[in-house]
């Protein structure tokens, strides 16, 4: 189950990024909905991973020590998910603006996409095949 979630979480990242670029280049209800909803799926997969991941659970169990020095465990427990959640809020705000035909949608999609690009652990495999 853990491996399956990790595989899906890794893969869905590419769909999120592709729809994010689409929504940024052509802000509209359709592109925005694809972006916001795949990102929602990715966050749900991430939440599942947080419960099942030995790395994440191990870090939680030793939180005080883990927070002392920068490490992969600290990155996942304290940073990675924060960017993902803020991006989720921005993408849904963008979708709402796109549905109203407001030009602000593009800025919100751009902010969500930029934050995602910064929050993705690029040091991990690009695909898990
Ligand atoms: C609340 C939001 C999120 C949570 C709780 C979360 C949680 C996690 C956890 C716990 C891991 C590491 C699992 C492990 O190695 O055992 C992980 C890895 C990863 N996450 Fe997230 N994540 C979230 C959002 C996102 C988003 C929005 C993206 C990209 C769009 C993303 C992309 C990735 C990638 C690419 C990996 C590496 C997967 C691999 O090693 O194959 N995550 N995430």
Care to describe what's here?
- This protein has 129 residues and is mainly alpha-helical.
- The model has no long low-confidence stretch (mean pLDDT 97).
- It starts with a helix and ends in a 10-residue tail after the last helix.
- The chain is elongated, with a radius of gyration of 16 Å.
- The protein has one domain (2-119).
- 81% of the residues lie in helices and 0% in strands.
- It contains 6 helices and no strands.
- Protoporphyrin IX containing FE is lined by residues 6, 9-10, 13, 16, 42-43, 46-47, 49-50, 53, 55-56, 76, 80-81, 84-85, 116, 120-121, 124-125, 128.
Characteristic key phrases:
129 residues; mainly alpha; 0% strand; elongated; binds protoporphyrin IX containing FE
Task: Give a quick precis of the structure.
It contains six helices and no strands. It is mainly alpha-helical.
Summarize the helices and strands and which ones pair or pack.
Blueprint lengths: L1 H24 L3 H24 L1 H8 L1 H4 L5 H28 L4 H16 L10
Helix pairs in contact: 1-2, 1-6, 2-5, 3-5, 5-6
The structure holds protoporphyrin IX containing FE (HEM).
Radius of gyration equals 16 Å
Please identify the oligomeric state. single chain
Number of domains: 1
Total beta strand runs: 0
Secondary-structure element pattern, one letter each: HHHHHH
The unreliable regions are none
Strand content: under 5%
What structural category do the secondary elements indicate?
A: mainly alpha
State the end-to-end distance.
16 Å
Reported for the largest beta sheet, the result is:
none
Number of helical segments with 4 or more residues = 6
- Kindly state the percentage of residues in helix: over 70%
Mean pLDDT: 97
Apparent shape: elongated
Hetero groups in this structure are: protoporphyrin IX containing FE
């Amino acid at each position: 189950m853990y491996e399956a979630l990790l595989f899906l979480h890794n893969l869905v990242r590419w769909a999120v990024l592709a729809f994010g670029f689409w929504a940024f280049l052509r802000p509209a209800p359709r592109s925005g909905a694809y972006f916001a909803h795949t990102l929602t799926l990715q966050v749900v997969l991430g939440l599942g991973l947080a419960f099942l991941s030995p790395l994440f659970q191990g870090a939680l169990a030793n939180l005080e020590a883990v927070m002392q020095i920068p490490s992969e465990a600290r990155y996942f427990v304290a940073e990675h998910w924060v960017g993902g959640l803020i991006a989720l809020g921005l993408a849904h705000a963008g979708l709402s603006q796109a549905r109203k035909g407001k030009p602000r949608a593009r800025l919100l999609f751009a902010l969500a996409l930029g934050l995602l690009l910064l929050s993705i652990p690029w040091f991990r495999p690009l695909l898990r095949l």
